[in-house]
Amino acid sequence: MIEKIKNLRNKESGFTIVELLIVIVVIGILAAITIVSYTGITTQANNAAYQQDASSIVSVSDAFYARTNAYPTTSADFTNASNYTKLPANITVAVTSGTVTGSVGADPCTAGSQTWAVCTNSSGVKSYSATVCAAGVTVYYLEGTSTLKTAKSGAGC
Q1: Is the Cβ–Cβ distance between 71 and 132 less than 8 Å?
Q2: Taking CA 83 as the corner, what is the angle to CA 80 and CA 87, rounded to the nearest 5 degrees?
Q3: pLDDT value of residue 21
Q4: CA dist 121 to 78, 90, 109, 152, Å?
Q5: According to the 3-state scheme, what is the secondary structure of 89-153?
Q6: 141 burial class (0-12, 13-18, 19+ CB within 10 angstroms)?
Q7: Are 154 and 61 in contact (CB under 8 A)?
Q8: Rounded mean pLDDT of 87-97?
């Protein structure tokens, strides 16, 4: 009887190295799935925010046209306090001429002739490019990091 007790005492139990490796691999897989899912969600949220801002700019353009029978031609037309509809404080519009691209210069929010689609300054103000013509307004924004999208007021340009 004493021999059996000694044998039970000497027998050590625990996890094998294989069991520990399996647990570590499973945790790694779960972490990778979580990180990839989170990255996709934030990108989708940013894209939705840009799209909503572009829709707001289109709405302001349409309201301006309904009041004046012309589309807004300057950046001030989009933010003027006398307009019935105006943009939120965190959105500015730069009326551009020429081709708008997804490329962003060194300081796109303050540069003169803009060719960017959207930029955000250090205060969180997002600036969008818009081309204005007699037929309407075309607002440019980026989806993801390089896909140039447009939202149009009237027939657009």
Answers
A1: yes
A2: 65
A3: 94
A4: 18, 10, 6, 24
A5: CCEEEEEECCCCCCCCCCCCCCCCCCCCCEEECCCCCEEEEEEEECCEEEEEEEECCCEEEEEEE
A6: buried
A7: yes
A8: 81
CA 114/CA 98 separation, integer angstroms: 9
6-44: pLDDT as tens digits: 665 566 677 889 999 999 999 999 999 888 878 778 778
Decide if 77 contacts 52 (C-beta within 8 A): no
Distance from chain centroid for Cα 127: 12
Give the model's confidence band at 113: pLDDT under 50 very low, under 70 low, under 90 confident, else very high.
low
At 27, list the tokens.
Answer: 């945790």
Average pLDDT in the chain: 80
pLDDT, mean of residues 101-130: 69
Measure the CA angle with vertex 125, ends 123 and 127; round to 5°: 140
Distance CA 138, CA 128 (A): 11
Amino acid at 144: G
Q: What span, in angstroms and rounded, lies between the C-alpha atoms of 142 and 5?
A: 74
Per-residue model confidence (pLDDT) at position 1: 63
